[in-house]
Amino acid sequence: MIPTGKWPSTRVLAKLTFRYDVPYQNCMETAMFQLKYYPVLIRYFLFLTLFTSLISCSRYEFSINDRVVYTPPPLFSGFSISDPFLRTCVKSAIAEENVTRADQLQRLLCPPGAINSLDGIEIFTNLNQLGLAENNVASIAQLTELDELRHLNLKGNDNLLCKDLDQLKKVEAIEVPSHCQPNIEKD
Fold first, then answer.
1. Which of 38, 29, 31, 32 is CA-nearest to residue 10?
2. What's the CA gap between 132 and 157, in Å, rounded?
3. Which of 179, 171, 126 has the alpha carbon at shortest distance from 153?
4. Residue 163 carries which DSSP code?
5. Counting beta carbons within 10 angstroms of the beta carbon of residue 89, is it exposed (0 to 12), middle (13 to 18) or buried (19 or more)?
6. Spacing of C-alpha 170 from chain mean position
7. Of the candidates 24, 86, 172, 185, which lies 20 to 30 Å from 17 by C-alpha distance?
8. Closest Cα to residue 113, out of 89, 91, 130, 92?
9. Could you give the CA distance from residue 101 to residue 94 in angstroms, rounded to a whole number?
């Protein structure tokens, strides 16, 4: 038999708030959902659907009845990089990959530009791939502390000191500027 008549009372059972903060943008999206008093099966289905979809979104803050249940960890910001172009590249990579600890950053691909110094990059100890093509890097001494570094692109860095390349023994694939090619071929 199909029930007829009005639904039972429409009192609010729970107010769910989902907040998503987009890093490096002045934007905050807030959506509010209210679960009304529906039959038990529909109510559980709605709650389960909302909760399941939120679990997959790790950057959301989740609260029920204005009480925060889950807040995502903040993005990593405990680094000090003097070069402004390298700092911008690192911030972008951290935001793109949701890095919350220094050891989580494994890939850093910086666009061509004016990176001069790598000071401060040594904090990212699990960096596996580093792209610095077409910049102004002269010294790569800081890279010797990156034991996990396996892929390195330094093409187009015309000021690069080629003698520093000998210290990068664990790097498996390396691209260097043309003036450093003879140093690589000797090894």
1. 38
2. 8
3. 171
4. G
5. buried
6. 25
7. 24
8. 89
9. 9
CA distance 60 to 168: 40
Q: What is the pLDDT of residues 70-93, one digit of tens each?
A: 778 899 999 999 999 999 999 999
In the structure encoding, which two tokens stand for residue 55, read together? 């679990």
Judged against a pLDDT cut of 80, whether residue 62 lies above it is answered with: no
Residues 171, 149: Cα–Cα separation, whole Å? 6
Query: How far from 30 is each of 14, 62, 63, 72, 133, CA to CA, in Å?
Result: 16, 11, 12, 15, 40
Domains and their CATH numbers in the chain: 12-70 (no CATH), 84-186 (3.80.10.10)
Q: Compute the distance between CA of residue 105 and CA of residue 123 in angstroms, rounded to an integer.
A: 10
Tracing tokens 């790790």 back to the chain, one arrives at 58
Measure the CA–CA gap between 48 and 46, rounded to whole angstroms. Answer: 6
What local confidence, expressed as pLDDT, does residue 29 receive?
Answer: 36
Query: pLDDT band at residue 141, thresholds of 50, 70 and 90?
Result: very high
**Single pTM value for the model:** 0.67
